[in-house]
Every structure is written in C-alpha cells, then in structure tokens.
C-alpha cells in the first residue's frame, strides 16, 4: 500500500486529535490499576486504603453536565465519601490517639457536608 503525502497528513492529523483522549484513557487505566494494589506494603491497612482510594477515584469519574456548580458538588460528594472511608480505615488500624481523633472529626465533618451537598442537588435538580 502506497501512502501519499495527503494520506500521511490526514493520518498525522487524526493521531494528533486522538492522542489526548487516548493518553487520558491510558492514564486513567494505569491510575486505576495502581490504585487497586498498594505500592510497597501489602498489609491489611494498606490494602484497605488502596480499596478506598480506588473507589473514590472511580466514583469521582462523573459525566460532566456543563453546570459547574452541579459538577463540583457531584464530584465532591464522592471525594468526601473517600475521606470518610479512609478515616474508617484509620479507626480500624491506627494506634495514634491524636490521629484517631482527627479521623473521627473528619467523619463527622464530611458526613455533614455530604448531607448539605445532597440537599443542594435535590433542590437544584441535580
């Protein structure tokens, strides 16, 4: 098959258009794969943190609506839930009383903010 100059330009243009999307998809796939398996330690707390992190990132992958307020709130609900899930891992495995107190405070604060954001979404057709 002979590739003409025109064909080469068209192919190069298509690759340039596809590359950002392909790069983003590749990055997300690698990021998801990395999030599922903790780097380094393979203990129970590390696995629990990796699972919470992977779930949070998956849940934060929303279909954008073009409404910045709604998109922000929808993404932040998942982000806050991730903080709650990680704080629960700390409470299950952590030993330091100051950090356990911080985890407890994070759970209370994030649950309140999630409730507020869900109410806002319900009010604004989210």
Automatic annotation (TrEMBL):
Signal peptide: 1-23
Alphabetized Pfam families for the sequence: DUF305
Keyword field: Signal
DUF305 domain: residues covered: 31-121
Record flagged with keyword Signal: yes
InterPro entries: DUF305_CopM-like (IPR005183), Ferritin-like (IPR012347)
Record-linked PANTHER family: SLL0788 PROTEIN
Protein name: Uncharacterized protein (DUF305 family)
Species assigned in the record: Phyllobacterium myrsinacearum
